[in-house]
Amino acid sequence: MPKIYLLDVTNRDGVQTAHLSLAKLEKTMINLYLNTMGVHQSEFGFPVTRHETNYLNANLRLAKKKVLHPIKLSGWLRALKQDVDDAFSNLSGLEYLNLSISTSDQMITGKFLGKRNFSGIVREMTDAVECAKKYGAKGIGVNAEDASRTSVEKLVEFGIAARDAGATRFRYCDTLGRDTPFSIYEKVVEVASKAKLPVEIHCHNDLGMVVACSIAGAKAALDGGMDAFINTTVNGMGERAGNADLVSVILAVKYGAGMDSYQLDEQIDLSMAWKISHYASYAFKVPLSINQVGVGSNAFAHSSGIHVDGALKDRRNYELYDYEELGRGEPEIFETGRKIILGEYSGIKGLRNIYGKLEIEFKDDNEARDILELARYANVHKQKPLTNDELKFIATYPEEARLLMTVEP
To answer: What percent of the chain has pLDDT over 90?
Structure first.
């Protein structure tokens, strides 16, 4: 039976949010949290972007060590043979990638300025797929950028050509967020049933329908007999108005009316929702909205007399799902007295104090000094205090931490 899987693109599309960014350590922590959450795949970055190289290789080393496992790490490339060559030259252990190219008449005319036609675009894409296959790629997705403004006949042609060349997935990109749940369903069900490829659903929120369109697209893929992979970002970060929020998508599949006959990847652990959402809020420096789905401060807040009365009698009167399921309910403890923070100018005593509270001991002074140096660099790297999980990561995987924080011109 086909299933709905999640492919999170926070570390690719989310970090393309204007005015915002993530440090490489923060991108790595997002991958670790996604892995714990049971997310199937993370599009973890750009293999041909130089400042990403060490970070990507560090994460691939973590995958080889089964630290980032079973999550799959995939890179985003243009559907060009040269990009594929460069990606496999730059990275060791890359196995999954998505190859992207524009397919709509608007993009062919307005972006490529008529220098390409649709047949040429299909040929470029298949050449890139075949090149990736020669390098031993295990999973190759092909992205039809601006699919929502591309005729369904051309999308089917694109998908069939990709499948025949060795692609394993078709990404339907509603690049401008123009789809409605009705339009995306009609196109995706036809592409899935005719091209016979699993379909990734990549939507944007320009019309405020990103989750609805993502769910409708996933339903269409399953109704067409193929698996669906919904592209998400933590807290809906992304270009312009953002992408499909990870937590909202999970809740919509689990609790949306009419979705009970569709199966969500059983590896998903929703109890990570609170933690990953708040970490991403801290890392991006974007506060969570009070009405953020599931994890906002008002998501389970009741004030009206009628609602309070009903919720106290039976939570099901006014709550669709339980807050405990999202990892909520435990009290948060804040220090109100002395507080020792590990910063870029900290010393060995501060390090031992902080790591002692985390129950992490060092075998000798040399190891402690090495971790102190890494922690100092991490503060410079992030330009904000380290979280406990980041401190634990640095102490546990110092070599990978050193590599991902090494950005060379």
So the answer is: 91
**Cα dihedral 253, 259, 265, 268 sign:** positive
Domain holding 175: CATH number? Answer: 3.20.20.70
pLDDT tens digits, one per residue of 121-174: 999 999 999 999 999 999 999 999 999 999 999 999 999 999 999 999 999 999
DSSP result, 322-348: -GGGGT--SPP----S------TT--H
Residues forming a β-bridge with 230: 6, 201
Tell me what percent of the chain is helix, strand and coil, each rounded to the nearest 5. 50, 15, 40
- Coil, strand, or helix at residue 290? coil
Q: Which position has the token pair 């049971």? A: 38
**Tokens, residue 63:** 């995958």
- Does residue 330 lie within any of the structural domains? no
Query: DSSP alpha helices (H): ranges in 68-117?
Result: 81-90, 105-110
Residue 47 within any structural domain of the chain: yes
Let me know whether 90 and 172 are in one domain. yes
The domain of 165 spans 3-275
Candidates 3, 40, 7; CA nearest to 262 is 3
CA atoms of 327 and 329, how far apart (whole Å):
7
Q: What is d(CA 177, CA 148) in angstroms, rounded to the nearest whole number? A: 8
Per-residue pLDDT reduced to its tens digit, 189-230: 999 999 999 999 999 999 999 999 999 999 999 999 999 999
Q: How many domains does the chain have?
A: 2
Amino acid at site 402:
R
Residue labelled with tokens 């020792």: 340
pTM for this one? Answer: 0.96
Residue 121 lies in a domain: yes
What pLDDT sits at residue 403?
Answer: 97
Pair 232, 6: CB distance under 8 Å: yes
d(CA 409, CA 125): 30
Sorted by sequence, the CB contacts under 8 Å of residue 168 that are 6+ apart come out as 139, 140, 141, 197, 198
